[in-house]
């Protein structure tokens, strides 16, 4: 029975459906216990990008390898769905909850409920802004401010001899999400040192290709001289490339493009000369997450913050890396 439910849940049932199959899976319930009986409730943001798809796969396959029973719930980019899923995991008495918070704010109440039920929580990929850091055991994921800084540093170097103003448009990630807030801040800090860099338009593209295209089309109409596009992820950059080509301009030449993630499609566009620089953000968090979960449930100490290691790619580096790229 348990196996069948897990398979169904992995197949993508929503939080509401998850509530429905609530109390039937109690094999590892009751908090803690031996490794082989661990049940993890995992609330994913959605399936908005190539990054997210790779992240979901990584979490699912790592759970399987570690013999952790995963109850997977897709929130379709909605915080209310994540809150429902977490409540449902609490009701089901899972051993541990992991989730990737779609936005930073508004989690205290539900996290307190998990804490009261003595179910430990691990934040993966994205952070929350709760003042009470005892509400979660650790935060595993990238340093998004650093990613924004790396994007800015490339730009400063690329235009170091330029005298004229450099007009930049920015496609932000999901409004209120940690990666959108931090990638914006890190980038702004670095380019802010030189007044020739001007962000002439900045809007959310919600981390999706379709929205990236739509917003870039609007930018191209409203802003005549765009030199650079900074997109908070590859998918929005890829959507924007379609808009740029549609407007009769050459992406990577007429408009230089910087993105974040380095998923396969992004790396291909970089190798093809349509993107100029990508800051890597690794979605392969699954193995570390399972390892941390096992340690927490054994009562071992774990660091309060686990930062993912990542690099950057220019066009030549992308050509070299593509054949062995995992995602
Ligand atoms: O960069 C983007 C995704 O939270 C790091 O979410 C993640 C971001 C990633 O949709 O592509």
TrEMBL record:
Chief location: other
GO MF term set: carbohydrate binding
GO CC annotation: cell envelope
InterPro entries per UniProt: Peripla_BP_I, SBP_2_dom
Keyword line: Signal
Signal sequence residues: 1-19
CDD domains: PBP1_galactofuranose_YtfQ-like
Periplasmic binding protein domain mapped to chain residues: 42-300
Domain of life: Bacteria
A matching Pfam family: Peripla_BP_4
Location in the cell: Cell envelope
Family: Belongs to the bacterial solute-binding protein 2 family.
Name used for this protein in its record: LacI family transcriptional regulator
Source species of the chain: Nonomuraea glycinis
